[in-house]
Amino acid sequence: MPFEADLAHALDRTTDSLEPDLTRLTGGAVERGRSRSRRRRSAGVIAGVGACAAIAAAGLVLPGVLAGARSAGSDMETVALAMPRSAISGAQMIDAVKKTFPGSRFGQQHGQSNDPSNPNGGWVANGEVDVNDGHGAASVGVSALRLKLPLRDGDGLSCDNMAGRGDAGDTCELSELPSSAALPGGALVMSEKIADRQPMGADPVPDSEIAHRWTTTVTLKSTGAQLQLVQWNTAGDFGGGNTPKPTRDTPPLSQKQAVAALTGPAWAPILGAVG
Known about the structure:
- By secondary structure, the chain is an alpha+beta fold.
- It is 20% helix and 21% strand.
- The longest helix is centred in the first third of the chain and has 15 residues, at 43-57.
- It is globular, with a radius of gyration of 17 Å.
């Protein structure tokens, strides 16, 4: 089960100053132009997420880290977390993920609660589920948190770190949603497609065996509430630093469908609780 799909982008807003060894343990769900780590699951990672999120939520703006070590020469990116307005349980997150894919079959799942009253418990809620919509299994994760206002460039808010990666097939697009009853003040949307490259020194892998992840991030401009949906075209055991081979060519949801889902009724209660 890909833990970083949700946990990663929480840590991605906390500390880029850690050594890559730690990021290899978490894997990297959101690689903002940094070298990619392989995904691994461990109880220690969970504890680290809570601790790092607590530091950021306490008001410190720390360099982002999670998805891998930042490439040399890149600008430091900092994003501060704010306390969520109310608690969200891991079960709520899992339920919302399942509602996002009606009619699908679901496999292994994991959820993590946030705890506004206890920063050590983490201020980021996560839900991860293996989803099969009839077109192949996919690993899906959503995380919910709140950024401090005013918003500034950072995870989910800028494509700057994607510069020069077009030749590798990676893409990043930014857009905005107008203010509405569901999205007071409007929202910023960032959509990415990233290839899961092999570690340095590994034997080349055919394109058909390279997994991809599609990340859709919606951030409310008025509150800083943010949802990030990560879809992989593979599923199963990500342990041992290995990514399973692709099980499908495309993600379960297109970019447009992903945005509609994150701003729809299934996630409205989560957005409200976060921001």
